[in-house]
Specification:
The complex is a heterodimer of chains A (295) and B (424). Chain A is an all-alpha fold and 295 residues long. Chain A has 14 helices and no strands. In chain B, the strands form 5 sheets. A 5-stranded mixed β-sheet of chain B has the order 2-1-3-13-6. In chain B, strands 10-7-11 form a 3-stranded antiparallel β-sheet. A two-stranded antiparallel ribbon of chain B has the order 4-5. The longest helix of chain B is centred in the N-terminal third of the chain and has 22 residues, at 2-23. Chain B is globular. Classes of the chains: A mainly alpha (295), B alpha/beta (424). At the A-B interface, helix 1 and helix 13 of A face helix 1, helix 3, strand 9 and helix 17 of B.
């Protein structure tokens, strides 16, 4: 056997090669191919014609697409809320009290539950004759039943709540890992210096969690813009009522895989990708340096 | 030694990957093309295996005996997968010969020029053997792009417990839509249950005699005073509690009826399967009666068809098999096996579709069969029918769910539909 084959580098590349090839074929190639596809009216069946930038022009005149973009931007509002609540939950479960591990498991159960099951369950709870309306009427908060998922003013926020409910445990565990990497002597020193609980969190915990915050914010942002499962299940793939819950991923799905308008769907996908890229750059720019290594 | 083993493992991994990638390459695209006079027909169905294996294996065996040299390969796919499977098949050149599709998807494929005109291989008698409304649902420019297969028409299911509680007589059911709405008001007043749930979609227009598009399908035709009147009437029904204020899909309608939040359900006979085990008490109190028709005097059906893709290598032989599959004799046999309805006129004369043994299933079957002469599948008939349906549905939801002005909603829907049609 040749000498270079016996090196660790070769072994490393050989083990990575299958995964890299799968990523290249099923992820990178479709992304690259999306650009020329977006310049055509490809629909699998029938003739394909080059249409130039017509798909992009149509996209910015398409009221439904613009509505879906708006809904996706509204969806991004849950990102800061999820991060704040997740950090607070992580701080709470990072304590040594009896049964704390049971709490950690309980908060993580929604994460590992199928989104279809979660969405169906919440659709029952939020239905007009559901438990939530019953409880709110009994408490006097509302006087009559509210169509949470059938009203355009509430439907999107209900689905955002479900996304948040399901995702909190995931981010909580990531922040918990970050919290446990913070040296305890920093907290001891702050106690000696007379810092309050909130000062400790604000001056020590948050700055040292910055790398985790950056990572979680980024993946949460991308997840919010690309949200699909819960919207699909709760609205039967329609994004209704009207366009109230129509998100960009759902609309691209409808155009591509329901109406077979792959050229147009590719153009829409590229537009959304550019928006995600811009927002991601903004997140990087806004994030200050931090982390344990800076101390 | 360790290094040598690791290196050999790495090489083996690479080799395995290469072999597996190469083996994923497709086989020859036209492997079902006729060779030496022998033909292999690829026959695809939706969700019929393994329940009906015996029936289809017998049918295929009979056909192969009567058509020496022809072999039928039967494959079955889930409902959600068939469209993608067919598209990828056409794109890769691995085209099936006879495919089972619903009317909506068959129309979509036909409008994009993907299906063969089966009419060129059919006699007039063969065309007339199917119920006219159902057969014409997939006819464009006098070309028949699909053969109707098994179907089901909508009937009115009624919760007799709620009906009796409201002081109404279930043995004398409503005959018109207005009577149905009146019964619903009584039920709402005396039991609290709503009449029925429905989806707010374009398919409500043809039931009331409102055309969606003009005759040459170049412009929207639904923005009329009659449509405004229909919408205002439905708004009134929602306010009165006759209609559920929700764009309720079939699953939601099942939930409402099973929990006795609604007293009626408008659906095909397969609805019974969903309530029989999940709500046995409601099932026991349910009867099926003819659905009152609207102004157009039609009842919407949901038909499964068989089509032959244009790129099939054996189109004529495929059409022959499609005709055999959907002839009256075989449709009668399959309808009995699957508890569905046939779409051939001769089949309905069988006593299986006219005699009621007292069960709900039998009752629904007889009622549904009696509606076949008024049955029509909903279809728009343009390449971007999906866009047209979505545009109308969204505005209807805005009107019914969010209180948008009906005229404004219809006008916006009309503008959007015309813009969609202009792209054809």
């Amino acid at each position: 056997m040749k000498k270079w084959m016996r090196t660790e580098t070769f072994a490393a590349w050989a083990f990575m090669a299958p995964g890299l090839l799968i990523v290249a074929v099923f992820v990178l190639w479709p992304i690259v191919y999306g650009l020329p596809l977006s310049l055509t009216d490809y629909s699998v069946i029938g003739e394909t014609h080059y249409v130039g930038v017509d798909n992009y022009v149509t996209a910015f005149q398409d009221k439904s697409f613009l509505a879906s973009l708006w809904n996706s931007m509204v969806y991004v509002l849950i990102v800061p809320i999820i991060q704040i609540i997740s950090i607070l939950m992580a701080i709470l479960v990072n304590s040594r009290i009896p049964l704390i591990k049971a709490f950690r498991a309980a908060y993580y159960i929604p994460v590992v539950t199928s989104m279809v099951a979660v969405a169906l369950m919440w659709s029952w709870l939020f239905s007009s004759n559901g438990v939530i309306n019953y409880a709110l009427i009994q408490l006097g908060v509302i006087q009559e039943q509210v169509g949470w998922l059938s009203s355009s003013s509430t439907a999107l926020y209900v689905i955002m709540f479900i996304t948040m409910w399901k995702g909190l445990g995931y981010y909580m565990m990531l922040y918990l890992a970050g919290l446990q990497s913070i040296p305890t002597d920093l907290y001891e020193a702050s106690m000696i210096d007379g810092a309050s609980r909130w000062q400790t969190i604000y001056r020590i915990t948050i700055p040292l969690l910055r790398p985790h915050i950056l990572f979680c914010t980024l993946i949460s942002l991308m997840g919010a813009i690309r949200v699909f499962d819960e919207v699909f299940v709760l609205t039967n793939g329609k994004g209704g009522p009207g366009t109230a819950t129509l998100t960009s991923s759902l609309y691209i799905y409808q155009k591509g895989l329901v109406q077979f308008n792959f050229g147009y769907a590719s153009a829409l996908g590229l537009i959304v990708s550019v928006i995600v890229g811009i927002l991601s750059i903004l997140v990087f720019r806004l994030n200050k340096k931090g982390g344990v290594q800076t101390y | 030694m360790k290094k040598k083993f690791r290196s050999w493992m790495s090489l083996c991994l690479l080799a395995t990957l290469c072999v597996s990638l190469l083996s994923a390459c497709g086989s020859d695209a036209k492997d079902n093309e006729a060779k030496d006079g022998k033909v292999t027909l690829k026959f695809w169905t939706i969700a019929l295996q393994p329940t009906f294996n015996d029936y289809f294996n017998g049918l295929i065996s009979e056909y192969q005996k009567s058509h020496p040299g022809v072999t039928v390969e039967w494959s079955d796919y889930p409902y959600d997968a068939i469209s993608n499977k067919l598209l990828t098949g056409i794109a890769s050149g691995n085209v099936p010969d006879v495919v089972n599709l619903n009317t909506e998807f068959a129309n979509q494929m036909a409008s994009k020029g993907a299906l063969a005109d089966l009419g060129q291989w059919m006699s007039d008698d063969e065309k007339k053997s199917y119920f006219d409304g159902i057969f014409n649902s997939t006819v464009f420019d006098n070309k028949a792009y699909a053969l109707p297969w098994y179907t089901g028409t909508e009937v009115l299911f009624m919760n007799t417990r709620l009906v009796k509680q409201a002081g109404l007589d279930p043995t004398n059911p409503p005959k018109t839509r207005d009577e149905l709405n009146e019964w619903s008001r009584e039920i709402k007043a005396k039991t609290g249950a709503t009449g029925y749930a429905t989806t707010f979609a374009a398919r409500m227009f043809p039931v009331e005699g409102i055309s969606i598009l003009n005759d040459d399908k170049t412009a929207a035709a639904f923005n009329t005073p009659a449509t405004i009147a229909l919408i205002q009437k439905m708004q009134g029904l929602i306010q009165e509690g006759v209609l559920v204020k929700e764009d309720a899909n079939f699953d939601k309608q099942i939930q409402y009826y099973s929990s006795e939040q609604t007293a009626f359900e408008i659906a095909g006979p397969t609805f019974i399967n969903f309530i029989k085990t999940s709500a046995p008490d409601v099932y026991k109190n349910t009867i099926a009666v003819p659905l009152p028709t609207g102004k157009a005097d039609v009842r919407l059906s949901n038909t499964m068809n068989v089509v032959v893709p244009l790129k099939s290598a054996n189109a004529e032989q495929a059409a022959e098999f499609a005709k055999f599959l959907t002839n009256a004799t075989n449709q009668t046999a399959f309808a009995k096996a699957a508890n569905t309805l046939p779409s051939t006129k001769e089949s309905i004369k069988d006593s299986f579709f006219t005699e009621n043994d007292g069960t709900l299933e039998s009752e629904a079957k007889v009622v549904s069969a009696e509606s076949l002469d008024k049955a029509v599948d909903y279809m728009v008939g343009v390449p971007n029918a999906g866009d047209v349906n979505s545009a109308i549905a969204r505005q209807l939801q805005e009107i019914f769910m969010n209180g948008k002005d009906p005229q404004q909603g219809l006008t916006e829907a009309e503008q959007e539909v015309n813009q969609i049609l202009s792209q054809n």
